[in-house]
Design goal:
homodimer; 147 residues; mainly alpha; Arc Repressor Mutant, subunit A; DNA-binding
DNA sequence: GTAAATTAAATTGTGTACAATACAAAACAA
DNA sequence: TTGTTTTGTATTGTACACAATTTAATTTAC
């Protein structure tokens, strides 16, 4: 077998986009075993995180927060509705807006999800200052690219 | 409309996984206009980056470098083969291995792709030291999670 | 030397992502 | 007003991403 070591992959390694892409996928993968217990996918999980916070929101707004469009959100929200965690209803004032509202069951799920962040955190061994710096740099890029 | 500002999204913002996930997607999106000119998707692009470097490799090996499995790579490689950028052939020594080899056309594509990194780089305004630190932290996480 | 285990790819099924399009409701303009 | 534009959501089509399964080839264990 030829060399599989990741030495002199200068081009790939020099791009910054690649470790970002790979790291994102690997970290999300670390969530899977814990989210499986809640029968949630990662996308459903981050959607519920917003719902726990906001309780009620429309799709556009949700998409701005999650950096997702209606093409992605519509099926996710329908799935979460079918699981009984939220309801979808057109706004009376403006029929274009779809109001997404969390249900009691949705709020109860928060209790069960409480330990997920810490459990995943155990898989990523960064010093607090490092995590903070990483956090700062990622948001600098995000803000910079202009939501 | 209710508040769409991303204030007090403490939960979402405190997770580190989320900015990683969002940032990865947004940066990849920045590649699209440039990759469109080459008729390459992002996944095809990073695959070609490895091929430009290695010239020949098997699928397993490629997957380890790109953090992708055969389920993702097989269709990508077939697509790149149909575009004439590489060939796929079982290894003589071990028929289980599929050798992926870059073609002359594949190598020629490298010339046209040369400017992509700098063009995307213009969209992300990090200081060199910041980029280096981000790079270091991402690879620390990746290495830490054990390829 | 053959059965069992392992390995590498491919296939299948589910779930994103997102561009492009469609469509209906609301805002705007002449 | 009535026609035009904009806006919010849904739909369609393409392309990942990955777990799980399958298949075929090689290795191993005995």
């Amino acid at each position: 077998m030829s060399k599989c070591e990741k030495d002199d992959m200068l081009r790939l390694k020099s791009q910054l986009c690649f470790p970002l892409y790979a790291c994102s996928k690997e970290v999300v993968r670390r969530y899977k075993p814990f989210l499986d217990e809640l029968d949630l996918t990662y996308t459903q999980y981050i959607t519920m995180m917003v719902m726990w916070e906001k309780q009620e929101i429309n799709v556009k707004c949700l998409g701005q927060i999650l950096y997702l469009d209606s093409g992605t959100l519509t099926p996710v929200l329908k799935k979460l509705e079918s699981k009984g965690y939220l309801t979808r209803k057109r706004s009376k004032e403006d029929e274009r807006n779809l109001r997404v509202t969390i249900t009691a069951a949705g709020n109860e799920l928060k209790e069960r999800a409480k330990t997920v962040p810490q459990q995943v955190g155990k898989c990523v061994h960064l010093q607090p200052e490092e995590a903070e710096e990483l956090y700062r740099l990622l948001y600098k890029i995000l803000d910079d690219m202009g939501l």
